[in-house]
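Hey, weird one. I pasted the MoxR family ATPase sequence into the form twice and got a warning about non-standard characters only the second time. First submission, copied straight from the form history:
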Amino acid sequence: MDNTSRTDSATAQLMEQILYEVKRVVVGQDRFLERVMVAMLAEGHLLVEGVPGLAKTLTVKTLAHTMRGQFKRIQFTPDLVPADLVGTRIYNQRTGEFNTSLGPVFANLLLADEINRAPAKVQSALLEVMQEHQVTIAGETHKVPDPFLVMATQNPIETEGTYPLPEAQVDRFMMKVLVDYPTDEEEFVIVQRVTGPAVEVTPVATTEQLHELQKECRQVYVDPSLVQYAVKLVSATRWPERHGLKDMGKYITYGASPRATIALTEGARAMAMLRGRGYALPEDMTDLVLDVLRHRVVLSYEALSEGLNSDQVVQKIMAKIPPPAKPLEHEKLVA
């Protein structure tokens, strides 16, 4: 067995251990958990939306406990101020100097619970740290730990006391994942597990191992034709008429940014790695298109008046722009 095979085997075993530990606590939600793992491997931030009680917070907390890293949770409320997130300068009467007190964003995994409950100035405080992985306090720059991931949850059904996320911040989330209700069978197991003995989660990975997995993920091969497919999809959200979607133009006010193309490519890499491959296939990318684009496509009033949502618009675009047919001819050559 060569070194590459041993590395692939060790990687698969580690990810299997992480998923096993999480599934000891969380029932179902396989699709959501898969997206969380993709975001971690691709070094992207995740926005999770679902009604209360669907284990959004529990999944992220459990995943954090499987790693020996720093985990912080911030409960967003209307009275929160930016200093509560990033930190502030505190005057020390004994020394007569100002000391910097760093906020909870200085962690490897940050859970921003109910992020839409805080006002825009607090949400905007996350902009710099999500993009630059650093915080500026009183003109002094402080780096957050590496790796650094933000996973934010929001509740879609309550509008009272909530604030819509600024578009600039929404775009910094690699994916927006919608979490749905469990099946009857899953709910039966949930009740049994919650009312039974508590399950202790065992840490099985370190932040150093996660960092190595992220570096390994960047080595996954993505064929140029697959990147071109991502470019066409994102371009069609900006100029639908150029891609034979003339009727779609009236439904879209603003299309997705280049961050969407990057997220599709990096996401396909991470998905391929999760599925045990060193190369990405079209289905690795198509499985993530809705999650990557749904929060980046701003619909027009006409689309909303007709009852259309972002997912339906993106699906119409996907139906018009087919993915490349198995672009990996080199795989046959190797065989």
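That's the output from the first submission. The warning seems to come from a hidden character in my clipboard, not from the data itself. The radius of gyration is 21 Å.
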